[in-house]
Design brief:
The complex is a heterohexamer of chains A (about 220), B (about 350), C (about 190), D (about 230), E (about 575) and F (about 180).
Chain B lengths: L14 H23 L2 H23 L4 H5 L3 H12 L6 H16 L12 H12 L1 H4 L11 H8 L14 H10 L7 H7 L12 H16 L6 H20 L7 H5 L4 H8 L10 H21 L6 H18 L12
Helix pairs in contact in B: 1-4, 1-11, 2-4, 2-5, 4-5, 4-6, 5-6, 6-16, 11-14, 12-14, 12-15, 15-16
Chain C lengths: L1 H13 L10 H6 L4 H30 L8 H23 L1 H6 L4 H4 L3 H12 L4 H30 L10 H15 L10
Chain D lengths: L2 H14 L10 H6 L4 H25 L8 H23 L1 H7 L10 H11 L4 H31 L1 E2 L3 H4 L6 E2 L14 H29 L1 H7 L3
Antiparallel strand pairs in D: 1-2
Helix pairs in contact in D: 1-7, 3-4, 3-6, 3-7, 4-5, 4-6, 6-7
The chains are: A alpha+beta (about 220), B mainly alpha (about 350), C mainly alpha (about 190), D mainly alpha (about 230), E alpha/beta (about 575), F mainly alpha (about 180).
The structure holds flavin mononucleotide (FMN) (3 copies), riboflavin (RBF), iron/sulfur cluster (SF4) (4 copies) and FE2/S2 (inorganic) cluster (FES).
Chain lengths: ~220, ~350, ~190, ~230, ~575, ~180
């Protein structure tokens, strides 16, 4: 479109609308940015709180006294953890001594896709706690791995990991009852627990192997 | 004014007549099923029939339609029988009732009742239940479940806890679960060797039920109640896909005969994709409907999240029916070879 | 390559925007009374959604992220999309009245289609790169158009049915959409290799 | 604003022009976040805030806005408000914020917001517009809550699940016996559609009953009118 | 001769029930006491009445003249007196009355003068005119004026002339008996059609359940040395439908969008050929027809019946059984129930079937369509009746047209096979007549819109003119005012006569203008764009006004009453 | 914050200018929708819809200002067609559907005042001043507009009766409901 074809009114119009839109944008973006700056600290605190809440689910209370979110180590993509991206592990210390490690792992072979886990291991390699952070298992069938959805409220399925050590526990301890193991499971949905168990075990073994590196001081 | 209108002659056929023949064609399949599982199958059929008829009567009453005329047409009974045959034979009674209510009330009468439902009511029942109660809907008894009629009834009516022994043992499910475990050790051959449920036309196995449905279907075809297009399409679609993958990797994919005679394949091919109401009506449309349903059922049962895909495949194709019909209009008299 | 294929299949069928992700429902219910108009709406949405995903990606990666302004996403995306839509509509109306008949009249409706903002936001959540974003956008749009047209087909038929009075119109359309969504649950799990 | 006007605006928003079951707009949040009552109610609250303020703002500024760019400007205003609400949720109701996900930013494209702005605020005084926004939102609030409650109840036998995300001390109600198997369908998208369909049918039923009653009462004024 | 036969899809095979009525030869029905001859007996324009009450008519005298080219004459079936020209109940499914000539026969059966002609010696145009004036119309059921079908298409050579002796409807045997008893005249009649159309072949199709008729026709063709092929076609309803028969005999499919001559074929019924021969070679217009009287009667038989014979007189001949509850005209597949025993036999009445509950049980309740597709399989036009039904039922007529409802020949095969016993044809007829009526409404709306716009335009113009006039006048006045004082001051004496003269002139002009406007007003306005008929109507209305000229305005009130009386009486006479 | 405002402002200027420019550059006159709506309206021009004729009503509908169920002559069928065209919900007609009728002038009473001629929107009345007036049947749309102006009340409406030419096949009675 050439300039000569432009009637003068169009340019004028363009100028006018541009200015008005400009004004509106400036005002409202300003307001918005103000709100952002104002809420930013709270949001960050909330996000950190959220993370800590999760971590506190897998770590016994009082088992650490440091700020975990600050004491982290980055783990490169690892097959053993089922991760294809770098992930972060948090280190718990008590009185300056490494007491536990919290890391993320993925069970790739859930019934309906990946199951994301948060695993806490003690310095001695024993499992302190496991939580599922994300999964797509069938609601009402495979979702009992989430304590919230587990019908067994007294002893949710996922707490069966607590205290296990891959090194000492025999093979049997890492199987569902249907396969001749110790783990309870819900009949008709054993794909899910098998996947979780396998992933947790692999993660625990991985940590055992790389202990030194993972617990190394910052 | 008397609205008796031309033509004053009619053939001696009726909806009831058609439906009764469909029911008759289901009998061989039911007989084999009873032989395989036990008389509890008949109880299940009775439950769904009663629930369907009650729901039908209730809706007819509510909508002010003549009860006698429609209760007698037999269509609700066909739906009921198909539901009973598609559900696990030891499903608790209330599950069957929920399915039947959904089929008749939501899938059928909300759309105006007989003849007007775009979705296959029986398959809606199945889909609703498998989505809502996946655990119950995937607990199939093995064919040689060592228990009597009374045990079965106790299970159906909830006086006995659901036992582990009866879960997940249809050939399809066994195969899929084994392959899914995914350590690569399982192959079709190893699983099938294990699965005594699949007799390959020799022992007591699910495939006999499929064969009996095939027989009933052929009879329906011979009686001209159904045309061959949709069943042939279904069988063809499934066989082509299954055959192709089987030839490519027989270790991970079962052969087409296995697929055609397990799960709901035969029931689907002869009694479900042929549902005139919710299916395609043009000749080309029926072929497309069958082909696509067969292929989709295979994809869902092999790659998807559910143990069998017939119901979902049929429902998905139900969605496409109006458009398929629209674009497969046959040329009319005098317009052949023209757009 | 298969990765891209899974994105497309996932967006069109398994995670269909309308029936599974529940986005873009208003036009889905509103413009599905006739197959013909559904086609028009589908085409227009496909265009806008593809452009919107592309534009959002560019804005996000080259204007917002470098300055740490992620909180302006919603604002900048939607204003840009609205302006693009309006521009396109004006241009089409002037340059091709035929195209305007086919597409143009639907364009203004698209600004308030949740999918148009939702899909770019999902792209960011899924950390898709540019090509993936475009594929996901286009796939979602095709998924939208597909179910829209199929839904219109059913609605045309159901219009003639003897539906109970209180269910006539939108109510039965909702039920139909529900049953369609139920059918689409059959695709569950087909994208897990992603 | 007179009382009558106020009452009219309220009636319109809550029932006559109810966004969800009459205008059939704003469906995405209506169906997507109503897996339980709390989610539905909270998203509606967010929407109410946005609608009230955007109504007020646009009705006040409407004379400044040229026709050609009114849509971008409206959207700009709405989007800015939505982002603020989004930030507030993020800061104060972080867990709920995560659950509601993209549906908070999507209030921008919630057709109903723009529809009211364009159809009402653009033509009416600020106070009216604000109340219109509020009552449209209230209409949305009760429908979303109802639908959320129904889905939750049918799907799992509970009510107010997730309330602890808003009021940390409270607990959900378990209304059905704990061995109620739960019709999961109600929690899934199909259930949402079907239940909304039933809700709309229910509204049609109420209206037709009201109309029938009106009809029965009607003859008198008709007769009076017929005299001249 | 070996004739290759083609197949048409669909069709049904109901019981034919033809034997009872072929046991006896065609009988001649006695003269009834009263004949009611409807003027409108064929497709096309309504014939104009040519007689008045009280007039004596002769047998064969024209009582209704064809109105347009597609229209056909009607004649007095016997000699007698016209009692009335009035609305009488018609042989029509509506049961509504139609303008009919009621004749009381005098029993003398006195013919008009008949002039036998040799059609070969006449111009084709003349032959067609004679056929039209003799009231020769299609007797196969459609009663389309035959002369209008006898012109070959300009661009396509006429290849086949198909003669329809199929008679596929159950019960019906009138064509069968006609072919058995009067084959030679039929064959000669076919000769007339052949000479007019010049086809390459003539094919006579007869269903193979009528071997006697085939034999008789073959013998006649042979005797007369013609080269027509008499072909026995498989018995399957509706093999006698023109398009189906053409398909079976020639392999051609005539789509609904085309007339058969455009594909080089034309089709006539045997009885039509027979009447054409009688009309040309004997000068006898169509006064009677063969009617099968069968069904629930003691004495089923074919009768040659005068047109206009009331139904009751005919059925009395067959001695209906006591449980007879209705009479169908036409076959059981396509016919309809006669609305009254008073309704007359017309050219289209090929068959009267006495029905009883046992013979035609009341229709079972209609169930919803289950989309079984049986109807589509049976439809000879390969339509999708259930789709057409679905949308007709929902009154979505646009969709019915998309599914080609206008290709439906209303043969009834679909209803025959429907397990849900849906009166499909009834739905299609309903949809078709709604669509036509809508078309009419639409045309009217368009016309109304055009007239409305015209009027608006005129209003605008008049308003503008008036405004202009007023402005002019105002300006003139203002000028006058302005001029006057000045003139008064300076040149009052000199100018005033001129001015006065101008004013006078203006006044005269104005008066003349007023008069002109008034004159114009006295002429009817708004008459542009009217059809001839409407102008005629207006002219009539104007004629009524003549006594109301302005001069008589004073006497207006007094005369008004008289006038009105005169008018109303005139109206009554009409 | 500054960067935020700067970036957004940049976008705003660009988009605002583009929109303003395009709004003039690509301006189109007229609304093709009006014609489509008008084609559906019966052109009775009776004003019962509350608008002075079919075209204004069509314009109002196209603008989205008017309900689609206001035209009694168009009947429920008209509402349906409009709903189809505009993708709106079908609503019941907000008046009773009347059978088709035409106006008849009682020629004995007519005083030739021409008031009805002026009222008739479609020029269906012929007659001159001080003469008896008559209605051309084929042109009358039955809008009743001529009734009110007549000072001697000589115009009445008559329902067009069914005859063999305008007879229509009836909707088959749905028998299922009756059997109950
Ligand atoms: C719809 C559906 C969903 C299922 N979802 C799961 C699931 O989430 N987790 C699971 O372990 N099994 C699931 N299953 C069950 C498996 O298909 C399989 O039957 C079962 O895991 C194997 O039986 P077992 O657990 O008794 O070994 C599902 C089954 C169906 C039909
Ligand atoms: C206005 C009009 C004009 C027609 N013109 C012709 C014609 O020129 N030639 C012809 O063969 N049929 C003509 N038809 C006739 C119809 O097709 C007629 O029904 C048909 O010829 C008779 O065949 P049928 O009885 O199959 O129904 C005309 C029909 C109408 C209504
Ligand atoms: C379904 C159907 C069946 C018909 N059956 C016959 C028949 O058996 N014999 C016949 O002469 N005409 C029959 N007709 C009429 C023919 O279509 C056609 O009108 C006629 O043969 C033309 O000849 P005509 O103009 O001399 O009547 C039938 C028409 C239809 C639609
Ligand atoms: C051949 C045939 C197949 C049928 N298949 C089904 C079916 O798959 N599911 C069902 O609910 N009803 C089936 N019916 C019964 C009936 O068509 C169905 O209930 C209607 O959908 C109800 O409107 C079938 C009927 C026939 C004649
Ligand atoms: S034969 Fe009857 S029931 Fe079957 S499809 Fe046709 S109309 Fe429907
Ligand atoms: S009546 Fe019409 S639709 Fe039915 S079979 Fe005959 S041609 Fe086909
Ligand atoms: S009511 Fe209908 S016919 Fe009358 S003016 Fe309005 S649109 Fe025209
Ligand atoms: S004559 Fe009267 S009713 Fe008829 S169109 Fe004119 S004004 Fe309307
Ligand atoms: S809320 Fe309307 S499209 Fe999503």
């Amino acid at each position: 479109m050439t300039h000569t074809a432009t009637p003068p009114t169009a340019t004028k119009m363009a100028l006018r609308t541009a200015v008005i839109l400009f004004l509106f944008v400036v005002i409202f973006t300003g307001l918005l940015s103000g709100a952002y700056l104002w809420t930013l600290p709270t949001i960050e605190a909330a996000a950190a709180g959220e993370k800590m809440k999760l971590i506190n689910e897998v770590l016994p209370p009082g088992s650490y006294d440091n700020d975990l979110l600050k004491d982290t180590v980055s783990i490169a993509p690892t097959v053993a953890l089922g991760q294809d991206e770098a992930s972060t592990a948090y280190r718990a210390r008590k009185n300056g001594k490494a007491s536990a490690l919290v890391l993320e792992a993925v069970a790739p072979d859930g019934y309906a896709g990946k199951i994301r886990l948060l695993i806490a291991l003690g310095a001695d390699g024993a499992l302190l706690g496991v939580r599922v952070t994300q999964h797509k298992e069938t609601p009402g069938l495979g979702d009992y791995i989430e304590p919230r959805k587990d019908k067994n409220k007294d002893r949710p399925w996922i707490t069966q990991f607590d205290g296990l050590t891959p090194a000492t526990a025999e093979e049997r301890a890492w199987k569902v009852k249907k396969d001749g193991g110790n783990f309870d499971s819900v009949a008709g949905a054993t794909v899910t627990p098998r996947a979780v168990i396998k992933a947790v075990r692999k993660a625990a073994l991985y940590v055992a192997e790389n202990r030194a590196q993972l617990f190394a001081p910052q | 004014m008397n609205f008796n209108t031309p033509p004053y002659l009619t053939q001696n056929v009726s909806v009831q007549h058609v439906m009764l023949q469909v029911l008759a064609a289901l009998l061989p399949g039911i007989a084999v099923y009873v032989w395989l599982i036990g008389p509890v199958v008949v109880v299940q059929i009775a439950i769904t029939t009663a629930a369907s008829l009650l729901a039908e009567a209730f809706m007819l009453r509510l909508l002010n339609k003549p009860l006698g005329l429609f209760l007698g047409d037999g269509s609700a009974i066909v739906t009921a029988w198909l539901i009973a045959l598609a559900f696990p034979p030891l499903a608790p009674w209330w599950l069957l009732v929920v399915g039947a209510l959904f089929a008749i009330i939501v899938a059928k009468h909300l759309y105006g009742g007989l003849g007007q439902n775009p979705f296959n009511p029986a398959m809606i029942a199945f889909a609703v239940c498998i989505v809502s109660f996946p655990a119950l809907m995937s607990q199939w008894p093995p064919v040689d479940l060592p228990s009597g009629v009374l045990d079965h009834l106790a299970l159906v009516f909830g006086y006995s806890p659901r036992i582990d022994a009866m879960s997940g043992a249809t050939p399809l499910d066994t195969l899929k679960t084994a392959l899914k475990l995914g350590d690569g050790s399982a192959s079709v051959a190893s699983v099938m060797a294990d699965a005594h449920t699949y007799g390959y036309f020799a022992g007591k196995g699910w495939e006999w039920v499929g064969a009996a449905y095939l027989l009933g279907g052929l009879w329906l075809w011979q009686r001209r109640i159904i045309s061959w297009h949709a069943p042939a399409g279904f069988v063809g679609g499934m066989a082509l896909l299954a055959g192709g993958l089987w030839l490519w990797n027989p270790g991970q994919f079962a052969n087409p005969v296995f697929h055609l005679f397990s799960g709901g394949s035969m029931l689907g091919a002869w009694f479900i994709v042929t549902d005139p109401v919710s299916g395609c009506t043009t000749v080309k449309g029926k072929l497309i409907f069958g082909l696509a349903a067969g292929a989709l059922a295979y994809v869902i049962r092999v790659f998807g999240g559910y143990p069998d895909g017939v119901a979902f495949a049929v429902l998905l194709l139900n969605i496409c029916v109006p458009l398929i019909d629209l674009y497969t209009q046959p040329p009319i008299f005098g317009m052949k070879g023209k757009p | 390559m298969t990765h891209y294929l899974f994105i497309i299949v996932g967006a069109v069928l398994v995670n269909n925007v309308v029936l599974v992700k529940i986005l873009g429902l208003c036009p889905f219910m509103g413009v599905s009374k006739k197959v013909e108009t559904a086609f028009g709406m589908g085409a227009a949405t496909t265009f806008v959604l593809t452009v919107a995903t592309g534009a959002s990606y560019v804005i996000d990666h080259y204007l917002l992220m470098p300055f740490g302004l992620e909180y302006l996403r919603t604002l900048s995306f939607i204003v840009t999309i609205a302006a693009i839509v309006q521009l396109t509509e004006m241009v089409i109306q002037k340059s091709s009245p035929v195209l305007h008949q086919v597409l143009g009249i639907y364009l203004p409706l698209i600004t308030t289609n949740c999918a148009v903002l939702g899909v770019p936001l999902l792209n960011i959540a899924y950390k898709y790169n540019f090509v993936e974003s475009l594929l996901f956008g286009a796939g979602s749009a095709v998924g939208f158009s597909l179910v829209l047209v199929l839904f219109a087909g059913i609605r045309e038929r159901v219009e003639g049915a003897d539906v109970p009075v209180h269910f006539r119109g939108v109510a039965i359309a909702m039920v139909t959409a529900g049953l369609m969504s139920l059918a689409f649950m059959g695709f569950t799990g087909l994208d897990k290799y992603q | 604003m007179t009382r009558d006007e106020f009452r009219q605006i309220a009636a319109n928003g809550i029932w006559k022009q109810n966004t969800s079951i009459v205008q059939i707009l704003g469906l995405c949040p209506l169906l997507a976040v109503t897996t339980n009552l709390v989610n539905g109610a909270m998203l509606s609250l967010a929407t109410i805030i946005v609608m009230a303020i955007s109504g007020l703002a646009i009705a006040s500024l409407r004379n400044l806005i040229p026709h050609e760019i009114r849509i971008p400007v409206f959207i700009l205003v709405v989007a800015a408000l939505v982002t603020v609400v989004d930030l507030l949720f993020n800061a104060n109701l972080h867990e709920l914020y995560l659950v509601l996900g993209i549906f908070i930013p999507l209030i921008v494209t919630n057709c109903i917001v723009l529809a009211r702005v364009e159809a009402y605020a653009n033509k009416n005084p600020p106070l009216h517009s604000m109340f219109d926004g509020i009552f449209m939102g209230v209409g949305m609030l009760w429908t979303l809550s109802l639908l959320g409650g129904l889905r939750e109840l049918i799907g799992g036998g509970t009510l107010f699940s997730g309330i602890d995300m808003v009021f940390p001390g409270l607990h959900p109600l378990q209304l059905f016996p704990s061995d109620y198997p739960g019709l999961l369908l109600a929690m899934l998208p199909p259930g949402a559609f079907i239940l909304l369909g039933c809700l709309i049918a229910w509204k049609n039923w109420i209206e037709s009953r009201a109309a029938a009653r009106q009809h029965r009462r009607a003859p008198e004024p008709m007769a009076a009118g017929g005299l001249h | 001769m070996l004739q290759q036969l083609f197949k048409f899809k669909g069709g049904v095979k109901p019981d034919t029930n033809k034997t009872p009525s072929v046991q006896l030869p065609i009988g001649i029905a006695p003269l009834p006491a009263l004949l009611i001859v409807p003027l409108h007996q064929s497709i096309g324009g309504m014939p104009n009445p040519l007689v008045e009450a009280g007039q004596r008519v002769l047998k064969g005298q024209r009582i209704g003249g064809p109105d347009k080219w597609v229209s056909s004459a009607v004649h007095a079936p016997t000699s007698g007196t016209v009692l009335a020209v009035e609305e009488r109940i018609a042989a029509h499914p509506s049961g509504l009355p139609t303008l009919s000539v009621v004749i009381e026969p005098d029993g003398r059966d006195e013919w008009i003068e008949r002039t036998p002609l040799d059609h070969t010696a006449l111009e084709p145009e003349r032959v067609r005119e004679i056929l039209r004036d003799s009231g020769v119309v299609g007797l196969g059921g459609a009663v389309f004026p035959s002369h209008a079908k006898l012109a070959p298409a300009k661009s396509v050579p006429m290849e086949d002339l198909v003669i329809n002796g199929a008679e596929c409807e159950p019960y019906m045997t009138c064509d069968d008996m006609l072919m058995r008893e009067r084959p030679e005249e039929i064959v000669r009649g076919i000769g007339i059609f052949r000479d007019l159309l010049q086809p390459q072949r003539v094919l006579i199709g007869i269903e193979d359940n009528k071997p006697e008729a085939v034999a008789a026709m073959q013998a006649a063709v042979h005797r007369l040395g013609e080269s027509y092929a008499v072909v026995a076609v498989p018995t399957r309803y509706p093999a006698g439908g023109a398009k189906q028969l053409i398909r079976v005999l020639t392999g051609k499919e005539v789509p609904a969008s085309k007339r058969s001559p455009e594909m080089g074929v034309q089709c006539f019924n045997v009885a039509t050929a027979y009447t054409a021969w009688r009309a040309i070679a004997h000068g006898e217009p169509v006064l009677s027809r063969i009617v099968t009287l069968t069904g629930n009667v003691e004495q089923p038989r074919n009768w040659e019946v005068l047109l206009g014979t009331p139904l009751k007189d005919l059925v009395a001949l067959g001695q209906p059984r006591p449980d007879t509850n209705r009479y169908l005209m036409g076959g059981p597949m396509m016919g309809f129930e006669m609305p009254s025993l008073e309704a007359p036999i017309v050219k289209a009445s090929n068959c009267i079937i006495a029905g009883s509950p046992a013979l035609f049980p009341p229709a079972p309740p209609e169930m919803p369509c289950i989309r079984c597709g049986a109807c589509a399989e049976a439809c000879p036009h390969e339509l999708q009746p259930f789709e057409m039904y679905w949308f007709s039922r929902a009154k979505n007529f646009g969709k019915t047209q998309e599914y080609n409802i206008f290709d439906c020949i209303e043969c009834g095969c679909c209803s025959y096979v429907c397990p849900s016993r849906i009166p499909l044809v009834q739905y299609f007829r309903f949809a078709k007549s709604e669509i036509w009526s809508r078309e009419r409404d639409k045309n009217m709306a368009d016309a109304a819109k055009a007239r409305f716009e015209l009027r608006n335009e005129r209003d605008e113009r008049e308003k503008a003119e008036k405004a202009a006039r007023l402005a002019k006048a105002a300006a003139a006045k203002a000028a006058e005012k302005k001029a006057a004082p000045e003139a008064g001051k300076e040149t009052a004496a000199a100018d005033s006569p001129v001015d006065a003269e101008a004013a006078k002139k203006a006044a005269i002009a104005a008066a003349m203008e007023r008069a002109r406007v008034q004159r114009e007003g006295a002429q009817p306005k708004n008459t542009d764009g009217l059809t001839v008929a409407q102008r005629k109507e207006i002219a009539e209305i104007e004629a009524r006004r003549v006594p109301l000229q302005p001069e008589q305005q004073t006497a207006f009130d007094a005369e008004n009453a008289e006038n009105a009386e005169a008018q109303s009486s005139r109206r009554e006479k009409q | 914050m500054l960067s935020a405002i700067l970036i957004m402002a940049l976008g705003a200027v660009v988009l605002g200018a583009a929109l303003g420019y395009a709004s003039i550059k690509f301006k189109v006159e007229g609304n093709p929708l009006v014609e489509k709506v008008e084609a559906i309206l019966p052109q009775t021009q009776c004003g019962q819809c509350g608008y002075p004729g079919c075209k204004p009503y069509a314009e109002a509908i196209a603008e989205g200002e008017a309900e689609i169920n206001l035209c009694p002559p168009g009947g429920q069928e008209g509402v349906r067609k409009l709903a189809d065209l505009l993708g709106r919900e079908v609503k019941p007609l907000n008046a009773e559907e009347k059978p088709k009728q035409i106006a008849i002038i009682d020629e004995q009473t007519c005083i030739g005042c021409t008031l009805c001629i002026q009222a008739c929107p479609v020029d269906a009345i012929v007659g001159a001043a001080k003469q008896m007036h008559t209605i051309v049947e084929a042109l009358c749309t039955g809008c009743e507009l001529c009734i009110k102006p007549c000072p001697v009340e000589c115009i009445r409406m008559e329902v067009i009766e069914e005859n063999i030419d305008n007879w229509k096949w009836k909707y088959p009675v749905v028998e299922i409901k009756r059997v109950a």
